[in-house]
Amino acid sequence: MELLQDAEFWTGLALLVFVALMLVLGVHKAAAKALDSKAAKIQAELDEAKTLREEAQNLLASLKSQREQTEKLAAEMLANAKAEAKRLEAEAADKLEEQIRRRQEIAERRISNAEAQASAEVKAAAAELAAQMAESVLAQRLDGAKSDPLIDAAVGQLADKLK
Fold first, then answer.
1. Mean pLDDT, the chain, as a whole number?
2. What gap in Å lies between CA 84 and CA 76, rounded to an integer?
């Protein structure tokens, strides 16, 4: 009976009773169930994280694709704008050249008209001066002579025709 007085015996027995009580009450099942539940939650979170990661990768790939398309579109727009600018520049140069050519033609016509007008005025002035000189020379020669009406009429007509 010494065994009944030994403290280690009672501690071991209490431990066995405690473990037996736990097994009888199904605490091990509840603990396993709680662990399984926790594992299921962790697995669900891992699955959700995996799904979110895949969605993020898909979104990233989509954004990269959109970025590439946008860059291509921007490059195309820039090339089109440069081509349009060159076309407009060439068109403006052609228009400027045409305008300069037209203005030069107008200036040449004006100069030609002014030359023709000046030439006509010089000819008219020369004819008038020649008529006046001829009239004065004839008047001096015929000063004492009898004047013929036909000569006077011809001199007057000559002055009118030279104008």
1. 88
2. 12
